[in-house]
Design the sequence.
């Protein structure tokens, strides 16, 4: 009997010694020398790799620890990189019994120091576009084999349409002519999801551009070409959730990798109500549901409280800055992720890249709520989000209400905007707030109409006030749509972006008379704004509504711009005595929008919905 047990034990030991072990993927795929934080996490994935031991033999690189997770197919390897470590290939040896696998891991030299990465700011005008809906420059990557089932159908607003990075690259002249200084793409990373996930918000690989958009190399090439034109790139990232077809769901590293991981039998959805962050009376139940619930069943909620998840996500953001030289980050669903983790992420990012900028989506329309999230806010003290830029949903809400009203002195029309700006005293840095009149998640500003004077007025305000302005693709050529029909109806294809389009808005000859009027308006004000220090750095003085007119000035180093907006559908005359403190002794000024000279007498008569941007 003892002999039988001995033979059986030897057999089992032999099986364990020769168990399968592979290294299929290492994230991040490479790293960079000279980073401030010496710690580097490597997530190694492969069958049975979790049982391996690891060794490293490279000057300036040492093994700090290894972490085995619940799944045997993951191994976290933590390395320490000394300050003087040189670029090169590090040999990582994985051993399991008698089996060894050696993988070379590359450390690259940085192309810039952290301080040299400069983010977007109030001198910029951001142009948001969806790569799938702008232009199809490479039809060969539309329908790719080996991906989850999807279709390319431009008649289906929820299907992929074939737009890609090549299409954007082929039309860089368009952005330069328009006067754009920064492009924000909705997420470009792989969304290998059934149905196609054209919008990009269900990531399945954090280190790979979706092949239907292009390759990592093509993304980097596009950014280089934008930089050569003075155009920055803002990368849309999502730390709150990934796609349900991510390998982490198919083979979960550990149960605490996600919030509410038992999604198939006990699905918990977020309440979408973000008030528990600031509500002094909130219940723990309400906070947990908001913070830990999933957006939808196809978007698993990542647990940033897990330090390994946090480190993975942080390194991913740093990697794209280093690899692709992206100039800024827009973080989706910012308040839905763990507050402390996000605060730490921003702290580490700001330390590594002190001149960088990140904007977080904080979708609540009350200024006090948005101000609570900005870096160094007294409202959240002693907490500090470390988030430099927040999104002005108050401005968005007020301007979209005002557009259907006649401006009065008490809370109607543009007086709503005036009263929203009153609360700028709550913000530590009002010039680092991203303002917009629409985006990919809202109705188009024009709704289903084509009211150009109304659009010009809202956009004049957006592009001259004390904010970082963000535009949405196609508005400059009168694109409209409402979400009640579908999200896809506010994300329609840009006319002329496809070879078989019968109409194009990419050229003056292809645009209608109304589209050209709209385009030329934006071209005029955007190119005037470019490099304009009054817009980038100027102080702001606003005046109460007078006879339906909302006015404010921007001033910097002796230069003054006075903006006057008639928020009514009728002609109005406003006495200029109200603005004497900024007009001073000026007899006339030049309207940037029309090029005409504006004489300053006793009063000024303005046409219906007329907008003036007057340089003194």
Sequence:
């Amino acid at each position: 009997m003892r002999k039988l047990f001995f033979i059986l034990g030897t057999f089992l030991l032999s099986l364990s010694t020769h168990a399968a072990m592979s290294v299929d993927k290492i994230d991040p795929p490479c790293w960079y020398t000279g980073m401030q934080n010496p710690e580097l996490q490597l997530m190694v994935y492969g069958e049975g790799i979790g049982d391996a031991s690891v060794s490293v033999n490279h000057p300036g690189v040492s093994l700090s620890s290894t972490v085995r997770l619940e799944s045997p197919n993951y191994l976290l390897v933590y390395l320490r990189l000394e300050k003087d470590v040189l670029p090169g290939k590090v040999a990582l040896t994985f051993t399991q019994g008698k089996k060894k696998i050696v993988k070379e891991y590359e450390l690259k030299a940085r192309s810039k120091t952290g301080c040299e990465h400069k983010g977007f700011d109030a001198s910029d005008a951001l142009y948001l576009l969806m790569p799938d809906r702008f232009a199809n420059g490479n039809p060969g990557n539309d329908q790719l084999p080996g991906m989850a089932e999807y279709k390319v159908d431009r008649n289906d607003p929820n299907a992929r349409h074939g737009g890609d990075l090549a299409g954007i690259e082929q039309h860089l002249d368009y952005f330069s002519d328009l006067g754009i200084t920064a492009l924000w793409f909705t997420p470009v990373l792989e969304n290998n999801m059934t149905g196609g996930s054209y919008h990009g918000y269900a990531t399945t690989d954090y280190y790979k551009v979706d092949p239907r958009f292009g390759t990592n190399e093509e993304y980097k090439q596009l950014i280089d070409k934008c930089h050569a034109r003075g155009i920055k790139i803002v990368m849309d990232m999502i730390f709150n959730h990934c796609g349900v077809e991510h390998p982490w769901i198919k083979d979960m590293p550990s149960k605490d990798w996600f919030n509410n991981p038992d999604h198939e039998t006990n699905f918990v959805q977020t309440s979408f109500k973000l008030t528990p962050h600031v509500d002094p009376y909130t219940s723990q139940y309400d906070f947990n549901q908001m913070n830990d619930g999933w957006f939808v069943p196809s978007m698993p909620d990542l647990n940033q409280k897990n330090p390994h998840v946090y480190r993975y996500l942080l390194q991913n953001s740093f990697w794209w800055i280093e690899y692709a030289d992206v100039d800024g980050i827009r973080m989706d669903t910012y308040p839905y992720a763990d507050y402390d983790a996000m605060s730490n992420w921003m702290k580490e990012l700001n330390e590594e890249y002190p001149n960088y900028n990140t904007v977080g989506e904080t979708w609540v329309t009350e200024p006090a709520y948005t101000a609570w999230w900005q870096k160094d806010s007294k409202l959240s003290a002693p907490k500090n989000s470390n988030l430099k830029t927040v999104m002005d949903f108050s401005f968005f809400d007020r301007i979209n209400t005002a557009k259907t009203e006649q401006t009065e002195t008490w809370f109607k029309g543009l007086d709503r905007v005036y009263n929203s700006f009153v609360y700028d005293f709550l913000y530590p840095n009002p010039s680092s707030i991203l303002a917009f009149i629409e985006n990919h998640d809202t109705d188009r500003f024009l709704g289903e109409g084509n009211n150009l004077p109304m659009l010009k007025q809202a956009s004049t305000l957006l592009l001259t006030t004390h904010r970082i302005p963000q535009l949405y693709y196609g508005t400059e050529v009168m694109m409209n749509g409402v979400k009640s029909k579908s999200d896809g109806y506010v994300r329609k294809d840009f006319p002329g972006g496809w070879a078989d389009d019968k109409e194009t808005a990419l050229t003056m000859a292809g645009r209608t008379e109304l589209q050209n009027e709209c385009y030329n308006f934006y071209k005029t004000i955007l190119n005037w704004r470019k490099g304009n220090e009054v817009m980038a750095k100027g102080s702001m003085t606003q005046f109460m509504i007078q006879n339906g007119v909302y006015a404010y000035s921007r001033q910097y180093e002796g230069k003054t711009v006075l903006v006057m907006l008639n928020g009514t559908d009728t002609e109005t005359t406003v006495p200029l005595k109200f603005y004497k403190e900024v007009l001073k002794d000026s007899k006339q000024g030049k309207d940037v929008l029309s090029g005409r000279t504006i004489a300053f007498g006793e009063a000024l008569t303005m046409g219906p919905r007329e907008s003036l941007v007057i340089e003194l």
Notes: The chain has a mean pLDDT of 96. The radius of gyration is 27 Å.
